[in-house]
Amino acid sequence: MGLNTYSSEDKALLAVDCIIFGFDKGDLKILLIKRTFEPGLGEWSLIGGFLKKEENLDQAASRVLHHLTGLRDIYMEQLYAFSKVDRDPAERTISVAYYALIDIATHDTSLIKQNSAQWFGLKDCPKLIFDHDRMVLHAIARLRRKTSNNPIGFELLPEKFTMKQLQNLYESILDKELDKRNFINKVNALDILVKLEEKDMSVSRKGAYLFKFDEEKYKAKVEEGFSFKL
Amino acid sequence: MGLNTYSSEDKALLAVDCIIFGFDKGDLKILLIKRTFEPGLGEWSLIGGFLKKEENLDQAASRVLHHLTGLRDIYMEQLYAFSKVDRDPAERTISVAYYALIDIATHDTSLIKQNSAQWFGLKDCPKLIFDHDRMVLHAIARLRRKTSNNPIGFELLPEKFTMKQLQNLYESILDKELDKRNFINKVNALDILVKLEEKDMSVSRKGAYLFKFDEEKYKAKVEEGFSFKL
DNA sequence: CTTTTTAAATGTTAATTATACACTTTTAAA
DNA sequence: TTTAAAAGTGTATAATTAACATTTAAAAAG
């Protein structure tokens, strides 16, 4: 009985697909590519690639992400393995989805253009090939859950940001409005931000103080474990 | 450039490994097998098997579980894909771990013996082969998290159970003592149990009322979404 | 049959956390 | 100097969670 026998017959292709979240102009977005290759030529899909013999899945996901954005050392997390038998009509492929959070301002725009990639607001996404729509839904759900327990949302912001931007980010991740005062109180209670002297004058006459993220304090908090419910 | 080209060169074996949780005599346990085959003959490991061409990962995990316990329709959930390049010294294998919750009283003891499997308390587990120890740690962490949000702990109990058993179960999952009155209040607040006339007289002179789980109400609650923090 | 023993059953108060809510300040533009 | 537009700030109430001790039931022992 073949439960524990190796069988090259059953070998499969292993792919990684990345749901890349970015945040721009108050909206949460994902990066998609218009495929210039088969299968699915001309259709939209997540970026992905195949697992190579000499790398693990995390490395494959990083490689794929780097190839499209030029970025390294990005917040990434494995999401789920998708394995429906005919999910890829061409050949049996199991895909392990990863999601990544990037600061949309720091990525390499030319690489994106070169790969016919484009940012889409969550509500304006085109239909994607295979089971990629399901992957995106999973990723959004995970991001929401994760966001309500760890302040990983910070990964999506530029180095300096205003409280308003931070709040907008959380509002677009959670898809609900938050009370400004309560939000600020909770963020301050976390004690992981540094208020800078500098102001962002681009939005209001008064200007809004910029903050940055105190990595030391943040790491310490993560160690001791904390909750961040909104 | 090979990012999106199929290459049979890179095909890999896909395994599933199952962390099977059970609850017996006040302790949370997992089911392990002593391997009667290579690699790792004579060592302890999780049960697992290879993904077949005609099934998806969920099906493979169910098959493996059924083969060892005789049980079907068990609570199972995909945990994580483990992919370190040399995790299996014999051949490149990616393993997708699943965890399952079973009522230890209902499984087929003879099948377990036949497969040289054995239940171990979480603290008495032998060292496992490959990265199976890591898988177990992941599974425990997930079970704890999941347990504090959904009352999936119920899956581990027999049809009829006492409040004390239920509390013991949660105490052993969370590895901490809970206050009896608060626990009962929270469980009652969920309104998903039915108190039976019948008592369990095996533990105390007074006897403890048995409860069962109201599937209708439980499902309704799951739909509407609820939290169950302890 | 009375007493003892053991676990079961039960509610209230205090503490913490989350929510709701409105006015003042700053600065540039009119 | 007035106006406009967003930034900044604190408190009171509600809801949830945590802490805590006594009474009850029934069998066993005397």
What is the first-to-last residue Cα distance of chain A?
52 Å
Roughly what is the average pLDDT of chain A, rounded to an integer? 92
Largest sheet of chain A: 7 strands, mixed
Task: Give the helix proportion of chain A (percent range).
Answer: 25-40%
User: Shape of chain A from CA axes?
Assistant: elongated
Strand content of chain A: 25-35%
Defining traits:
homodimer, Nucleoside Triphosphate Pyrophosphohydrolase, Arc Repressor Mutant, subunit A, 30% helix, elongated, DNA-binding
Ordered list of secondary-structure elements with their pairings:
The structure is a homodimer.
Chain A: E1 13-24, E2 27-34, E3 44-45, E4 47-50, H1 57-69, E5 75-82, E6 93-101, H2 109-114, E7 117-121, H3 132-147, E8 161-162, H4 163-174, H5 180-190, E9 193-200, E10 208-213, H6 215-224
Parallel strand pairs in A: 1-6
Antiparallel strand pairs in A: 1-2, 1-4, 2-3, 2-7, 5-6, 8-10, 9-10
The structure holds a DNA duplex (30 and 30 nucleotides).
Describe the structure.
2 copies of one chain form a homodimer. In chain A, the strands form 2 sheets. In chain A, strands 1, 2, 3, 4, 5, 6 and 7 form a 7-stranded mixed beta sheet that branches. A 3-stranded antiparallel beta sheet of chain A has the order 8-10-9. Chain A is 30% helix and 28% strand. Chain A folds into 2 domains: 138 residues, Nucleoside Triphosphate Pyrophosphohydrolase, CATH 3.90.79.10; 68 residues, Winged helix-like DNA-binding domain superfamily/Winged helix DNA-binding domain (Arc Repressor Mutant, subunit A). Chains A and B meet through strand 4, helix 1 and strand 5 of A and strand 4, helix 1 and strand 5 of B. Chain A binds a DNA duplex (30 and 30 nucleotides) through helix 5.
